[in-house]
Amino acid sequence: MSSEKEVTIYDLARKLNISIATVSRALKDDPVVSKKTKKRIADLAQEMGYRSNNFARNLRTQRTNTIGVIIPRINSSFMSAAIAGMENVATSEGYNLIISQSSESQEKEKANAVTLFNNRVDGLLVSLAYDTESIAHFEPFIKKKIPLVFFDRTTDQLDGICVQINNVKAAYEATTHLVSLGRRRIVHITATQKRNVYIDRLQGYKQALADQRIPFREDHVIVGNLSQEAGADAATHIRQMQPLPDAVFVANDNCAVGCMIALKQMGIRIPEDIAFVGFNNDPVSTVIEPNLTTINYPGYEMGQVAARNLIAHLSGSSGTSSTNTIILRSELVIRESSTGGKPTP
Q1: Quick one: which H or E segment has residue 288?
Q2: Are residues 21 and 87 in the same domain?
Q3: Position 257 in a domain
Q4: In degrees to the nearest 10, what's the CA dihedral of 279, 130, 264, 276?
Q5: Are residues 115 and 87 in the same domain?
Q6: Pairwise CA distance, residues 74 & 125, whole Å
Q7: Which tens digit of pLDDT belongs to each residue from 15-63?
């Protein structure tokens, strides 16, 4: 079966009995062409099913006006907020996003990088998967001078802009908050120490304990994938500890909620027996009872900052090369899971 012939600007010009140059200018919204003529051309283009030949234009300009995005998980409220921030900035600057998900897999992240490279994206925004060790799959972008911006889960192995929070400081504040409530047997639930965010949060936890002269215990660090299921598994482990811990600091909210639910089912009172602090300020933190004390940091703003810096680099702005790491604010949001509704001493 033969496909229907593609409508071209020559067809539009012939139908309207005007020059090809006028049609071309009108479709580019050139102010030289009157609004009345632009409308006639646009109406006919829609009627005839005309599609602009972006591929040909891209070959001429060496630009696709697309930005690649690689994130670990789409079903994350933080990542959803970050994508919304990116989309807001990108759209306003005339760029489209191509979003891919690594599903926390280095191999899938590699495949995503190859696909986006072959799609000739103008730049790349990346938050790394849990298990990514080698970042060699991003080197083709560096060689082609395609700018990279890493956000949240970043790396110092490649030249590029990194947008993140001070995870050491945030974890230090979370742990110190628990100590200020009289808690001294504090468990930390985290993920693989291949990612900067979890390395830094563990470091902040350790520093807070050291400053409060509380000995660090390796058996008080539980490593998992930070899912709700991992939280439930951690709860079983915690329940068997002797003596029972009196606080838990978790590196994300979903895992904290899974752990809280499981411990409550075992008869543990929160926060009377075990106080909790999570991380991310996901919506789930205000659904769980008691509401979860957590670290808030702005996913939407992080997405905006990452996209803005990438696009500024693409446009040749000199401001983007002044720093490689951009630190955004974070804050401890105190709720009943740590204080039981009582003010912090």
Answers
A1: none
A2: no
A3: yes
A4: -30
A5: yes
A6: 14
A7: 999 998 898 888 877 888 898 998 898 888 888 877 665 545 554 446 7
Containing structural domain, residue 251: 167-297+332-339
What's the CA gap between 183 and 306, in Å, rounded? 38
* Beta-strand relationship, 294-296 and 331-333: antiparallel
Residue with tokens 């936890």, as numbered in its chain: 205
Number of domains in the chain: 3
List b or e across 318-334, with b for residues whose CB sees 16 or more CB atoms inside 10 angstroms.
Answer: eebeeeeebebebebbb
pLDDT tens-digit readout, 106-147: 999 999 999 999 988 999 999 999 889 889 999 999 888 899
In a domain, 344, yes or no: no
Helices 9-16, 35-48: crossing angle, 10 deg rounding: 120
Instruction: Kindly tell me the sign of the dihedral angle through the C-alpha atoms of 152, 155, 156, 159.
Output: negative
Is the same domain home to 144 and 171?
A: no
**In terms of domains, do 33 and 149 share one?**
no
190 and 85 inside one domain: no
CB 64 within 8 A of CB 58: yes
| Residue of 257, 256, 259, 267 lying closest to 238 (CA atoms) | 259
The answer to whether 73 and 103 have CB atoms below 8 angstroms apart is: yes
Residue 257: CATH number of its domain:
3.40.50.2300
- Residue 231 contacts by C-beta under 8 Å, 6 or more apart in sequence? 189, 224, 250, 254, 255, 256, 257, 258, 259, 260, 261, 262
258, 181: one domain: yes
